[in-house]
Amino acid sequence: MGTAEDTAAVHAEGIVKRYGPTVALDGARLTVRPGEAHALVGRNGAGKSTLVSVLTGMARPDAGRVTFGGAPAPGWGDTAAWQRKVACVHQKSMTVPELTVAENLFLGRLPGGRTIRWRALRERARELLAGYGVEVDPAARIKELGVEQRQFVEIARALSFGARLIILDEPTARLDAGGIDRLFGRLRELRAQGVAFLFISHHLQEVHELCDTVTVFRDARHVLTAPVPGLAEDALVAAMTGEAAGPTRQRPRGARPAGEPVLRTRGLTADGYFAPLDLTVRAGEVVGLAGATASGTTAIGETLVGLRAPDGGRITVRGRPVRTGSVPHALAAGIGYVPEDRHREGLVPGRSVAENATLTVADQLGPMGTVLPARTRAFARRMISALDIRTTGPDQPVSGLSGGNQQKVVIARALAREPAVLVAVRPTNGVDVKSKDALLGVVREVADAGSGALIVSDELDDLRVCDRVLAVFHGRVTAEFAAGWHDHELVAAMEGLAAAAGEEAAPGPAGGGREPAPHTRTAQGTEGAAP
Ligand SMILES: Nc1ncnc2c1ncn2[C@@H]1O[C@H](COP(=O)(O)OP(=O)(O)OP(=O)(O)O)[C@@H](O)[C@H]1O
Hints:
- The chain is an alpha/beta fold and 531 residues long.
- The chain folds into 4 domains: 1-85 and 163-246, Rossmann fold, CATH 3.40.50; 97-161, no CATH class; 261-334 and 419-525, Rossmann fold (3-Layer(aba) Sandwich), CATH 3.40.50.300; 347-418, no CATH class.
- The protein is built from 19 helices and 20 strands.
- The protein has a 6-stranded mixed β-sheet with strand order 6-7-8-3-9-10, with helices on both faces. Strands 16-17-18-13-19-20 form a 6-stranded mixed β-sheet, with helices on both faces.
- It is globular, with a radius of gyration of 24 Å.
- Mean pLDDT is 83; it is low at 361-369 and 499-531.
- The protein binds adenosine-5'-triphosphate.
């Protein structure tokens, strides 16, 4: 007769969930109170996503119970009843991209029997969105929206079903600073109206910014629930890892002797994305390319690896020209690639960890005889240990790995060919704090062994491992920072404030020493980086 349970937005206890030999949840529990912003954190594979599946009626637990406001959770398969209780906004959209906002809002509950009055539907959609303070055109197709607007539509949709608990699974992963501010602002307003949030994130500073309570899962079990204020980050990391927290951050390195250029671009440009770029990455060097979501940095990365054809300029690897606009040629030339979107460009779900870790191009999937299983497995074993991949072994299908562990397999695969230069776009996206260090350490080792690395990211932790960082704003390199930069300098440069900040930020020679773009504070206004 726990009163806490009776009033809880959601209460779960004794939850057990097995996938074959894997115990994903082992007697796990969680209580979220109405109006609470509750963080759920844990290392990759700790069981967070599995709990979300159980709390949303997507997975049936082997044992345990879930209640909403003290009442038992809806029956298995009663989707409509679950939707009235809880919704999850995933990193991957759960909306239908080809349909309009209005259609998505009323999907599954369109008035049946007679013809649909689209104009009236759009009007209702407009009212519904306005009611939640969301300014999105109901006639726009979902695929035309940015991540931020799409998430707001999903939140509004959940609330309109009556849900008073919303689960956010790494909602900030693809938002820039302005987008995160607006999302958090909206969440705070909704909380004041009694809506509860369960917030899953690997960004502990966001947990501090948004949440009042945090729960830590480790190895399929609940290990801690505590108020966020007053909880030291060390204690949180210790709860996640089960070890006393050591120095988790990479220490910035001083200038180190760099070797011959391994990657060079001259006048490389893509119209509407980035201005002519002269970039040099030397052997032994890790170079960072820092920029907000639409700064053009991702397009630069994609061009280097052949995914995007440039409108001008040249790329050379160890002095040899690379045919641009071709992934196979870039790979053959020695450019390794860690893509941003592992779901789309990353993995073959049904194949094993070992196969995915070693198959660099899709056409190698055909004749499996060309791959030596023993070598493949030996390499996979090495990577499983170096990158701390949580798996039952090299033969496990990657579809059975947690999201963060899948990302590590993508990185293993890029390393399998021993590239001359590794290009990694936001490599630690979705990776837990402890694994981040391991993974960035591996990138460092690749450089120490004589290759070069380029890290394209707006995550300061990713960039800390770099020997130097080039800040990109609106498609141009606006500043260069040697290791040892201060967070605020680099953040200012990414937001286009390098000159205004006026600190040490010399115009980057790699960018041709151009002036910073004449923009003032517009972190969120990076709309396409047209030079
Ligand atoms: N469909 C599945 N089949 C087999 N194993 C699975 C499946 N889904 C999850 N698992 C396993 O369950 C465990 C928990 O995974 P889960 O996805 O819940 O972790 P997580 O905490 O969300 O991790 P991440 O931070 O990487 O997203 C992992 O060991 C994973 O390999």
